UniProtKB/TrEMBL annotation:
It comes from the Bacteria. GO terms for cellular component: cytoplasm. The lineage of its organism: Bacteria, Pseudomonadati, Pseudomonadota, Gammaproteobacteria, Chromatiales. Keywords: Cytoplasm, Kinase, Magnesium, Metal-binding, Phosphotransferase system, Pyruvate, Sugar transport, Transferase, Transport. The keyword rRNA-binding does not apply. It catalyses: L-histidyl-[protein] + phosphoenolpyruvate = N(pros)-phospho-L-histidyl-[protein] + pyruvate. Belongs to the PEP-utilizing enzyme family. InterPro entries: GAF, GAF-like_dom_sf, PEP-util_enz_mobile_dom, PEP-utilizing_PTS_enzyme, PEP_util_C, Phosphohistidine_dom_sf, PTS_EI-like, PTS_EIN. This is phosphoenolpyruvate--protein phosphotransferase. Gene3D superfamilies: 3.30.450.40, Phosphoenolpyruvate-binding domains (3.20.20.60), Phosphohistidine domain (3.50.30.10), PtsI, HPr-binding domain (1.10.274.10). It is found in: Cytoplasm. Its EC number is 2.7.3.9. Its cofactor is Mg(2+). It comes from Rheinheimera salexigens.
């Protein structure tokens, strides 16, 4: 059952023409359930009806013609109730509506199941049979499971169809909705980067130039065969002859008489080379997967492996052919630090990531680079828009495809307005960060995630409040050596002489992966991340601390920050290792090195409740509101599906932050905030009201936050705070702060 289900969903996902996909779907379901009729109706919210889109069993002439109102008949009832309806004698049911065009008089049993995506009914899937009977539990659960899996595929089907019909001359316009990732508006040409050359990530599409596609395919096959020859030669001395025979099998499979012919045929039928390869490889691999014989089953893996190699070579050729435009909108399934580094900074205008959410590291990187980003563009095969003109609206989370001239002009006006506002913030960046009533704030910058690309000017800042050391690790193909790290850290420490530079030890795991240190986990954000990983690998931790200490010689502005601390024992162990590194470096250099100040990130809720003990052990703490929000609310910061639940303005998060501020004050324990909340105008106002005085943020936000803090009276904020803390939802909190800002004339220009 499970494999049947998977196959049906995959087939629908791969068919770019919606009507074909649905026609295939109903036939597959009818066969799988051995029933007499299967139909699918899709909702049209403008017309307020369900349209019969495909059926195997009802009158074919009714397809695309018969519509049933949202409140009509059994189909409407399934939609209204949002649950399956299973009837032995459908005609006897009071909600049954006679629709002569569909010719269903001979069917009695009816099972209808809603197709729901993100709480919205997209359609209804039905099966029918002549006998009077209730469909059994297996049939019902099959249909329910299928409908749930189909929902996200169908949600994008129309967009997919539009895309597949587009060609170089026929440009589609459209509007995609995602989540705001980094503020700002940009225009440019889509440049699609595919991370792993993965078949799953390839959405099938047609081509109108089969000769060109065929030439691509032949070229990729030629390169792949040459690779096999090289591999076979290299392995000749190491593998027994029967194992080496696999390379001959691969050669043969690629030959015209085998998979090759089939792929050529698909290309001749109008599929592009990648799509033809995917369709054939998956078809054959599945055939092998279903075989009883375990030896033959394994051949499915061979075919996939072979296909993967050809695919890599096809994509490499494509990549080489694509000339980078001067206004790149980087589009990827999951934007990574390495992808960002592939594009010269001056060409990079914006980011669109299909995965991820507002506090994914990709979005944080975009904010660090001061470029707009839209995240979580719901599984759309944006790859098909390679080279198209886009507008990215990072304020609203919108992506506009090939917009018309009037829309471009309007967005250009907004871009100019933005630039003028930013210029006004920058006019005051050299002035003190001090409120109207004289309260002083320290404003520091977060850096590191994209350090080679960042252009932070540190002159008007109070130091580096969070240097994320991950980037140099992610950008390499192995762990950086102690010398490499020392040189890099030295540069950072020198960039802010006489001001604190808070360097965080390696925080990989979660959504930050090292290409050479694979961590496969079901729950990466709750897994081997940050200090947990480095304490398990003291050699990595010690080398990093030693490099920091060496870099700090004669500068003495280094502070060390420990990420993801959830237990005091981790603090003790880290301090022991830091002490050891200090001792070693002192010994090697024959200088008595003092231990730098050490702090702990407050980002895992457990440690919030151990602040007094923590204050005894370390010198300061820094609140990471990104993770603290994720862990307090149990919402993955990277998952667009639950992005609506992720909000650092949730009253529970605010109350936790307030308690922390008060406790830290009582303990005289220095506390700062380095999460993204400090860069949010509404957030920083509330944090200031709670008593926080040290903030660290992306350099692109610093001028704005300083401008804001210079215009407030703490006493006013202190009146606002209790109202906000009493709010029942994040939405109400934002409304309160918004109203406060609106009432203050001097803050009118702020686009919070
Ligand atoms: C945080 O969690 O708030 C933080 C600053 O660290 P990161 O975003 O790198 O996890
Ligand atoms: Mg964190």
């Amino acid at each position: 059952m499970l494999s049947q289900l998977r196959r049906i969903v995959q087939d629908v996902a791969q068919e770019p023409v919606l009507n074909n996909a649905l026609a295939g779907l109903v036939t597959s379901i009818k066969q799988a359930l051995e029933t007499e009729c299967c139909s699918v109706y899709l909702a049209d919210y403008e017309q307020q009806h369900f349209m019969l889109m495909a059926s195997d069993g009802l009158n074919p002439d009714a397809i695309g013609q018969v519509a049933i109102g949202f409140s009509e008949g059994l189909i409407g009832w399934v939609g209204q109730r949002e649950e399956p309806i299973n009837l032995a004698k459908a005609q006897l049911h009071p909600r049954f509506k006679v629709t002569p065009e569909v010719s269903e008089d001979h069917f009695s049993a009816f099972l209808g199941c809603p197709i729901i995506h993100h709480r919205k009914v997209l359609g209804v899937l039905t099966i029918q049979q002549a006998v009077d009977r209730i469909f059994n539990e297996d049939e019902e659960s099959f249909l329910v499971t299928l409908a749930a899996q189909l929902a996200s595929v169908l949600a994008n089907a129309e967009m997919r169809q539009a895309a597949s019909e587009s060609s170089a001359t026929q440009i589609q316009t459209g509007h995609l909705k995602g989540l705001p990732g980094a503020p700002g508006i940009a225009m440019g040409h889509a440049h699609i980067l595919e991370p792993a050359n993965d078949f799953n990530a390839i959405s099938v599409k047609r081509s109108d130039n089969p000769d060109k596609e065929l030439a691509h395919f032949y070229r990729a096959v030629k390169i792949t065969k040459a690779e096999f020859n090289r591999l076979a030669e290299r392995m000749a001395g190491h593998l027994p002859p029967d194992a080496l025979a696999i390379f001959d099998v691969y050669h043969q499979l690629l030959d015209a008489a085998s998979l090759g012919t089939e792929i050529e045929q698909q290309i001749a039928d109008g599929w592009c080379a990648k799509s033809a390869l995917k369709r054939v490889v998956e078809k054959f691999a599945r055939k092998f997967d279903d075989m009883d014989d375990s030896y033959l089953r394994e051949r499915g893996t061979d075919i996939r492996d072979l296909g993967q190699r050809v695919l890599n070579n096809l994509l490499d050729t494509e990549k080489r052919k694509i000339k980078l435009p001067d206004d790149v909108i980087l589009v990827a399934d999951n934007v990574t630090a390495t992808m960002l580094a592939e594009i010269p900074r001056e060409k990079l205008m914006a980011i669109v990531s299909l995965k991820g959410s507002v506090n994914s590291h990709a979005a944080i990187m975009a904010r660090a680079l001061d470029i707009p980003a839209v995240m979580g563009v719901d599984e759309l095969p944006l790859r098909q828009w390679q080279g198209q003109y886009l507008i990215v609206d990072g304020y609203q989370g919108n992506v506009l495809l090939s917009p018309v001239a009037a829309i471009c002009a309007e967005y250009r006006r907004l871009i100019n307005e933005d630039a003028a506002i930013n210029a006004r913030y920058l006019e005051e960046v050299h002035l003190p960060s001090q409120s109207l009533c004289g309260v002083k704030f320290d404003l520091m910058v977060n850096s590191g995630l994209a350090v080679e690309l960042e252009t932070a000017d540190l002159e008007h800042t109070d130091g580096v409040g969070l240097y994320r050391t991950e980037f140099p690790f992610i950008m390499r193909s192995r762990f950086p050596t102690e010398q490499e790290q020392t040189a890099l850290y030295r540069k950072i420490l020198e960039s802010s002489p006489n001001k604190p530079v808070i360097m965080r030890t390696l925080d990989v795991g979660g959504d930050k992966a090292l290409p050479y240190f694979n961590i496969e986990e079901e729950n990466p954000f709750l897994g081997w991340r940050g200090i947990r990983l480095t304490l398990d690998h003291p050699e990595i931790f010690l080398v990093q601390i030693r490099a920091m200490l060496r870099a700090n010689l004669a500068l003495d502005n280094l502070h060390i920050l420990l990420p993801m601390i959830s237990d005091l024992a981790e603090v003790d162990e880290s301090l022991r290792l830091i002490k050891q590194a200090c001792f070693e470096v002192s010994d090697e250099l024959s200088i008595a090195l003092p231990r730098p100040k050490v702090g702990v990130m407050i980002e895992v809720p457990s440690i919030m409740y151990q602040l007094p003990e923590l204050a005894q052990k370390v010198d300061f703490c820094s609140v990471g509101t990104n993770d603290l929000t994720q862990y307090l609310l149990a919402v993955d910061r990277n998952n667009p599906r639950v992005a609506g639940l992720y909000d650092a303005m949730h009253p529970a998060v605010l109350r936790a932050l307030y308690t922390l501020a008060q406790q830290a004050k009582g303990l005289q324990f220095p506390i700062s905030v380095c999460g993204e909340l400090a860069a949010d105008p509404a957030g920083v106002l509330l944090l200031a009201a709670m008593g926080y005085r040290y903030f660290s943020m992306n350099s692109s936000n610093l001028a704005k936050i300083k401008w804001l803090l210079r215009r407030i009276e703490l006493s006013e904020l202190e009146l606002l705070l209790p109202e906000v803390l009493a709010c029942s939802s994040a939405k109400l909190v934002r409304l309160h702060v918004q109203r406060f800002l609106e009432q203050k004339q001097s803050l009118n220009q702020l686009r919070a």
